[in-house]
Amino acid sequence: MGENPLIAAVRSGDAKAVAAALAAGADPDAVDEYGTPALCLAVDAFDLPVVEELMLADRPVELNCVAADGRTPVLRATDRGACEITSVLISRGADPRLTDAEGRDALALARHWHVTGAEAELRRRSGTSEPVVRRAAVDGWGNVCEELSLGGLTVRNGHTAILTELEPEYGIAPTFQELMGRALPEPDVDQPVWSATTITLQGRHAAPAVWAEAAALRDRPNPLERYCGAEVIRLINLFDESEDSPFDRPLVDLFLPWAAREEDPRVMRALTAGLSEAMDPRAEQPLPALTRHHDREVRRWALSGLHRLVAQGDPEALTTVMECTRDADARVREGACRALGTAPKDSTTSSDALAGCLNDEDEAVRVAAAIPLFLRDDPRGDQVLRDLGPVDGDSPYFAEFHAVRYHHRALDPAG
């Protein structure tokens, strides 16, 4: 007898095949020859798209299914350090308080990995002294993480992030310093421990001490501490839903002089992002100069903050953004095209600048230039859009193409 089609699709990592099997009536709770449920197999493979397909089945998958080793999908995701999958499973109703054969729930398991360390735990489990193989990976949400492999075991470095995200669900609130201390050993602020730390601290914004502690970090000699303070304050303002935006002006008061003296690019990214997101007009003052910063992410954030001025037809902002269409970095050029797309539709200067990007070596830049031209009824970018062929749900341009699909002018496939 052949392998169950759903199990085969899950093992192949083919989310479309999984969806097709489920639509044909496959049991989402199917198990493999070892008694491992399909959902657990997807978790073990760090395959968030397949996990989500299984949860979308007409007959909902059992989120708390137990494999032969006694672990639920949440426990497997926690054990693997797959923080985004852990988060998705719990948000859909999986129970993190169920325990494994050793009596550990998700919180206890995450804490064990955090205290022991991923490399030490891999060595303990594998019993080998061989070098750990490390490689950069991208999780299901597109975030950077690290993957560690030893003795046939592979985990990702999300255990501390999972611990930090789970603690509020258990009523546990470590101090600001303790949470920051978990992240400081990691110099790459794009790693999961940093987002978990700063978002958790942001969630405590109702306590005035959090803002004060974050702001006090601006003069610390360690740039990672400064980054933590800047990012927490940025997130407090970004996620605030108050009608009077009480954090906007204090952020600008703090960030303007800070950005003028800050030298670390990681901190500058947080400061520039905060200024770009602020509604206070003063925040726009340093942005044109920051589009020439040596760090490309700073340049990208600065561009995003110029959209309002470009939309108003501000000559300096338009000139600045047009200069960025010649940036050495493709993502900066793409951001410049998006910013130019917000310029008034009768701006021939911005349209000509967009047309000048239609031959860019990077496809995403060409598309970012072609779409606003199409929406302005300017046909110069039409061929770029035709060359893409069908833009379906798997295309990186699918969301952007919404405006093209429903525009009054159809994109003629025949040219």
Q: Order of strands across the biggest sheet?
A: 1-2-3
Largest sheet: 3 strands, antiparallel
Based on DSSP secondary structure assignment, what is the total number of beta strands?
3
Query: In whole angstroms, how far apart are the ends?
Result: 52 Å
Shape call: globular
Helix content: 40-55%
| Beta-strand residue percentage | under 5%
- The pLDDT mean sits at 95
Radius of gyration: 24 Å
> So how many helices?
24
What is the H/E string? Answer: HHHHHHHHEEEHHHHHHHHHHHHHHHH
As residue ranges, the low-confidence spans are none
Structural class: mainly alpha
Describe it for me?
The chain is mainly α and 415 residues long. Among the domains are: 1-62, Serine Threonine Protein Phosphatase 5, Tetratricopeptide repeat, CATH 1.25.40; 76-170, no CATH class. Helices cover 53% and strands 4% of the residues. It has 24 helices and 3 strands. It has helices spanning 5-12, 15-23, 38-44, 48-55, 73-80, 83-91, 106-116, 118-126, 159-166, 176-183, 192-202, 208-216, 223-239, 248-261, 265-277, 287-290, 296-304, 307-311, 315-324, 330-340, 348-355, 363-375, 382-386, 401-405, and strands spanning 133-138, 144-150, 153-156. A 3-stranded antiparallel β-sheet has the order 1-2-3, with helices on one face. A hairpin with a 5-residue loop joins strand 1 (133-138) and strand 2. Helix 7 crosses helix 9, helix 9 packs parallel to helix 11 and helix 12 (208-216) packs antiparallel against helix 13 (223-239). The longest helix is centred in the middle third of the chain and has 17 residues, at 223-239. It is globular, with a radius of gyration of 24 Å. The N and C termini lie far apart (52 Å). Keywords: ANK repeat, Repeat. InterPro entries: Ankyrin_rpt (IPR002110), Ankyrin_rpt-contain_sf (IPR036770), ARM-like (IPR011989), ARM-type_fold (IPR016024).
